Amino acid sequence: MMSFRCAWCNAECERRAIDVKRARERGLNLYCDRKCSGLARRRNKTKAQLVHEKRLYDLEYRKRNLAMLKAKKAAYFKRTYDPVQAAIYRKSRMPRHVEYCRQPKYKLWKQAYDAQYRAKKYYGPFAEAAMLTADLNREIKERASNHDIKWQNKTANKSQFRAREAKEEKRSRPRYRERRRYHQAAIS
Ligand SMILES: [Zn+2]
What we know:
Helix 6 (104-123) crosses helix 7. The chain has a two-stranded antiparallel sheet with strand order 1-2. It has helices spanning 17-26, 34-41, 47-64, 66-80, 83-101, 104-123, 127-143, 146-152, 158-167, 176-182, and strands spanning 2-5, 12-15. By secondary structure, the protein is mainly α. Strand 1 and strand 2 form a beta hairpin. Bound molecules: zinc ion (ZN). Residues 6, 8-9, 11, 31-32, 36 line the site of zinc ion.
């Protein structure tokens, strides 16, 4: 047996000589019992501190093992998915889902999402340009008055034109204002 001092309570203790020598060679701490060993290993961190550190660790872990975790989750889903049970669950959640979709925030988001979806569906690689054009068109319409739009589309005073037209005799060559009405491209 060989005596040593506990690294925590500093009491004089005895242990097999081989253990004490081994610890000294490797620069390890020796304790009188498990209680002192446990106390010496305490970090004295608060619960909040530990939670915070774990959160940071998990973030890092997920970032590092993204591919593995995704594959694992996909495999679990495939293994456990039951279409019948899933349909029942969806049905039970439906009222909440409807309420969710009624939120103004969701409606705004959905509107933008649908616009993008349609642009991609109908215009493919030109989706971005199509969306810009639609925005521009909306902007122009918002700024123009009803009168301006009707005038540009040649639909101003439409009923008056029609009434006059009906009264007039047919001409072999269209009059200027008829040319203007029917022979120019309109904007919507
Ligand atoms: Zn001790």
